[in-house]
Amino acid sequence: MKPLMTRKRWITVTLGVVLCAGWQVHAESNRVTFPDLAPLVHYTTVKRGNVTEHMLTTQKAIEAAKGGQPIPNGTPFVLVDYRDGKVHRYFVMEKGPAWGADYEARRRTGDWQFQWFWPDKSINMKENTERCQTCHQSQRDSEFLYTFEQLRDFRASAARAP
Ligand code: HEC
Fold it and tell me: Is pLDDT larger for residue 162 or for residue 36?
């Protein structure tokens, strides 16, 4: 049994190295640029422990969701991730004309692309945004958004509630 154990451990280590290397290789910039946050509307908040997430998008996207229309191309969605009251990172997803064609069908999320930005707006080059897409693919029926319902139900009078 002993040689088998050793072999198993060797395989685990090798796999780990290969996976990490793959992760680095796939780190990427893409078409998503850091958006101008000033005109965006804060439409909902998610709180979990010491994490507070503010979700922002354009007024036009809110109107589209309410009217049952597709979210227009050029729309950014921003998740501002605050830890203990300070910005820890920004998650951005943005839709553009035929942007889905940049990716193989397996990882595609319609025409949405994803990016992770640090507070200085630089890209986290250690992130493989395929991970974002794989998870958000489950939201295919709601524009790949998890907070689509909150978007549709948003009323300006409730804006920026703590
Ligand atoms: C394991 C699943 C998962 C992964 C991976 C993931 N997300 Fe999300 N994302 C969520 C969930 C769930 C929400 C809803 C908010 C919440 O519950 O925290 C969300 C919300 C968002 C939102 C706000 C709009 C919306 O869909 O509601 C953006 C923008 C976003 N994610 C971008 C990203 C980016 C960029 C990445 C990769 C760097 C990423 N996400 C990775 C699950 C995921």
Answer: 36
**Tokens representing residue 129 in the block:** 């945004």
Closest to 70 in 3D by CA, of 59, 58, 61: 61
Task: Please say whether the beta carbons of 53 and 82 come within 8 A.
Answer: yes
Which pLDDT value is given to residue 6? 54
Closest atom of ligand 1 relative to the 78 alpha carbon: 29
- Whether residue 21 has pLDDT greater than 80: no
Separation between Cα atoms, residue 65 and residue 70, nearest integer Å: 7
How far is C-alpha 29 from the chain's CA centre? 13
Amino acid at the residue 27: A
More reliable by pLDDT, 160 or 141: 141
- Ligand 1 within 6 A of 77 CB? yes
CA–CA dist 146, 136 (Å, integer): 7
User: Alpha carbon 59 to chain centroid distance?
Assistant: 19
Residue 79: CB within 6 Å of ligand 1? Answer: yes
